[in-house]
Amino acid sequence: MTSLSSWLLDVKPSRPGELQITEELGPRGRQRALIGTGVATALVLAAFAWIIRRFQVKGQFAPELWRPFRQWAIWRYLLLGLGQTLKAAGVALVFALTLGIVLAMWRASSPKRKRIPATLFSEIFRACALVLLIKFSFFQLPKTPGFRGWTLGTYAFVAVVSGLTFYYSTVFAEVIRSGIRSLPKGQSEAALAIGLTETRAMRLVILPQALRRSLPNIFTQSASLLKDTSLGVFVTYSELLSRAKIVGEFGSNFLQSFVVAGFMYITVVAILTSSANRLQSRQARSSR
Amino acid sequence: MTDNPSTPLIVVEKLDKWFGDHHVLKDINLEVARGEVVVVIGPSGSGKSTLCRCINRLERFQKGSITIDGATLPEEGKELAALRADVGMVFQSFNLFAHKTIVENVMLGPVKVRGMDRAAARVKAMGLLERVGIGDKANRHPAELSGGQQQRAAIARALAMDPKVMLFDEPTSALDPEMVNEVLDVMLELASQGMTMVVVTHEMGFARSAAKRVVFMDDGRLVEVATPSEFFDNPKSDRARDFLSKIL
Q: Which residue of B has its CA nearest to A196?
């Protein structure tokens, strides 16, 4: 018990250069923390227990409902869907980041002719519900000259990617802009003082530092972007969630399919997060 | 561009600047000759840093004109950038580019502004870093250096552009006392080599030994312009006497 409590109460060792807000606890604090941890753990466990109990009551653990997931063909079908999810997320991420960087640069620059359009674009697309952007692209594209005659799947893919691009470019722009703002003014002054133009100072001195500072936020938002590909379900884009739904329809086991799909999302996001953390700690070691 | 050695390198004429309602520079007139070292001193808030920053237009001013080497300061764009390339600036807070190593900091201007090739720029940068005594720190990042070392690197970065004039905006004010001299030594050496320098500082020792003229500012005006010995031993204005009595 003492070893468990000391493990629970161990304060995270501070690394050099890392902000430390947790202070080692005193005797009363330790007691309170132990009780709090106990209560919280009990509540979480109780919630899980209740869910499992309900599953049992409703017969959701019946073997025939889970049997489809013993077939490779079903897994293959879902994994291919996951591939579609990753494909749309990857393409949208590249476009959204690029556009986001341009928007952030324009919003941070001094000439009004750049600042105003960038601000307008950001405010409009950030306020729009993402699903609307996706649906709008999906229904408008086939009517737009130059985009006619594609397959339905292509329209769906392009709609998902463009919806995500429009929305997330404004999110990334905001994240990067706050990175730009967090830099000391002296950085841009020094860049101008050696004779760089405003644009080059931005590109060579400000942006690289701002991007590095916004990397944690960019990763967080990338995880959201990845999950938001599931909105493709509204435009028949055959990604993970759509396929989980089809599997559920086919075997009358929606709940089981969605649980499986849920775990697949969790796995992918966990991989993304852990690689983000690794990258960050490596970066923290290499600089400063 | 004229290269006539008899014309002054910097001419400030009837300069006025306001921050909102606050009149920070009032009718400033000043000429700096080629090879001259001018030290600007005065109480904080007197406008001396602002004057220094106006010379390469890091601050905009509302009235008057500044010419450098016969050319009027351009207002913006590529022309302004080209002029700034010829004017070296050293800041109070060093402002080294935090994401680049020391040698990359020094190389950036020559490569990107002067179009020098990287190998040549590196040789030049290393030479300058040796000259300011931090050749061994070339591949470190700024945050790994002491304040004095960072400021010397910043001086090397400015020198890499082969500037016509160097502006120093309180270069030792952010330093721990034991590091002040290593920076002043570099500046003294520069002065002795004939670099034109405008130095805003509180280091009276430096003003005495290196300055050709001392400019005393108070409340946005040039109150007194004199040689160091005149100024320190026999200040004419009351305000200068008052200021000196407080700091010496």
A: B81
